[in-house]
């Protein structure tokens, strides 16, 4: 199933879309290839969020594996707040050594599973 945002992007006529711009992930600060581009709601939609930002798919999944929607809505609703969190800093340090198109399955934190 394709998300609504991705569906909108796909449905736009290629000639109406601007030339592909290089987008930098605000979390890991690496270039995001088109195949790894995910739109992230800074405040989760379930908590009233509307603003989105493009992230690497692996960074996006890591955020949702580590934090609850309530934590994202109350404390971690900016890229800089996410970057400053110790668990994300460890992840960012690890992922920066990988190529831009790198993707690996992400596991939920034991704290989130419980």
From TrEMBL:
UniProt GO molecular function: hydrolase activity
Keywords: Hydrolase
Superkingdom of this protein's organism: Bacteria
Alphabetized InterPro entries for the sequence: HNH_nuc
Keyword Cytoplasm: no
Gene3D superfamilies from the UniProt entry: 1.10.30.50
Name listed for the protein in its UniProt record: Alpha/beta hydrolase
Organism for this UniProt entry: Polynucleobacter wuianus
């Amino acid at each position: 199933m394709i998300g609504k945002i991705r569906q909108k992007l796909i449905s736009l006529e290629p000639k109406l879309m601007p030339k592909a711009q290089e987008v930098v992930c605000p979390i890991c600060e690496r270039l995001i290839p088109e195949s790894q581009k995910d739109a992230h709601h800074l405040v989760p939609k379930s908590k009233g969020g509307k603003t989105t930002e493009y992230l690497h798919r692996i960074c996006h999944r890591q955020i949702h594996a580590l934090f609850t929607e309530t934590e994202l809505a109350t404390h971690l609703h900016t890229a800089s707040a996410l970057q400053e969190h110790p668990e994300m800093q460890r992840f960012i340090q690890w992922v920066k050594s990988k190529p831009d198109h790198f993707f690996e399955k992400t596991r939920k934190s034991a704290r989130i599973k419980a």
